[in-house]
Amino acid sequence: MYSFNLKAEQAFDPKKHIEKVLGRTGEGDVTVACWEPGQTSPYHCHPDATEIYFCFEGGGRMRTPTETIGIVPGSFVVHPRGELHEYINGPQRTLLFRVRYGDGMSGRTKEWPSNPNWQPRPEDREYFGRNL
Length: 132
Known about the structure:
Layout: H1 6-9, E1 18-25, E2 28-35, E3 43-45, E4 49-57, E5 60-63, E6 68-71, E7 76-79, E8 86-89, E9 94-102, E10 108-111, H2 122-131
Antiparallel strand pairs: 1-2, 2-9, 3-10, 4-7, 4-9, 5-6, 5-8
């Protein structure tokens, strides 16, 4: 059994959002994700894992290829394996709880407009070349 106090585990960085792994199981991991105002994740997917977010505090927007929804405290979002998604934080600090489970946790990043220094990895270009 895992038990955590999300407030005690939170950590923020003005340069980038923080994802802190709190525990691992054979099928996945549980993390706390901490966001400063305006921070944005890469537009990415996890081909071999389902990813679930629960908003504890703050909020923003979650974007997929087909929709963008508002995230507020109490929101619960499930991304099936391979679904492209991006989190855009709102005007206040946000604390998200995340669970990933599946055959592999690695992600594939398609784009990251808020990070001007980001360059796609060759394996990501190859993945999106085959799967779009």
